[in-house]
């Protein structure tokens, strides 16, 4: 069975990506760190709805041992991973001068060590099979930089560099590495903003609406499909025209 691993798949954008791949007939591994109940409930829901194997797998993506253990368990239970979606992420808004050393490290580690750990753990099977798709979730702030989000913007810009360099290195093994940069997408990550700020963000979006997790999932599914076999190292903005 072809298996997809979605990190941070318990909710928000990750859960929409998990659903999209389940609807396409893939076995789906939903990674979670804190949201165990949500991940397990989503697994049951997707299995019932799409009649494909789906499982919830715990790992803090920052922790290499946890990631290695998770990947081994997924291979055992669902089969070899052919698509990896590095989606797990956190965000906070803080003036640069107020960011503590720990906050800086956790931000970079969640996004960058997370992508590093998960990719290294799954890539050997992809190289062996001479096939694989790796899709990284960055952000429009990784492209433009966001005020009061220097740590987040730095991590997300890193994901773009990671995508481009890895795409070149893995292309001879027929592994595509691409990146999706969401704009403002309605998930728990926006809970830090007031209704007024969200309204402003909507009004500043040329398509005049905030994005949905499904908007992102559709783009990710394209990069996971054979239709994108000749695309690698791409950075796709899915943001309603907010950044062009
Ligand atoms: P969300 O609803 O807050 O979900 C974040 C997900 O990341 C959760 O499933 C969470 O899992 C997981 N996660 C966080 N730290 C983790 C860790 N150490 N190990 C494993 N999983 C971890 O946010 P979202 O909006 O869906 O964000 C998904 C991705 O899109 C992130 O990379 C985010 O930066 C990016 N993005 C979002 C927006 C937006 O406007 N929403 C815009 C641009 C980019 P647990 O709850 O189980 O810990």
TrEMBL record:
GO terms for molecular function: oxidoreductase activity. It is an enzyme of class 1 (oxidoreductase). Its EC number is 1.1.1.-. It comes from the Bacteria. InterPro entries: NAD(P)-bd_dom_sf, Sc_DH/Rdtase_CS, SDR, SDR_fam. Keywords: Lipid metabolism, Oxidoreductase, Steroid metabolism. NCBIfam families: EF_P_mod_YmfI, PRK12826.1-2. Belongs to the short-chain dehydrogenases/reductases (SDR) family. This is 3-oxoacyl-ACP reductase family protein.
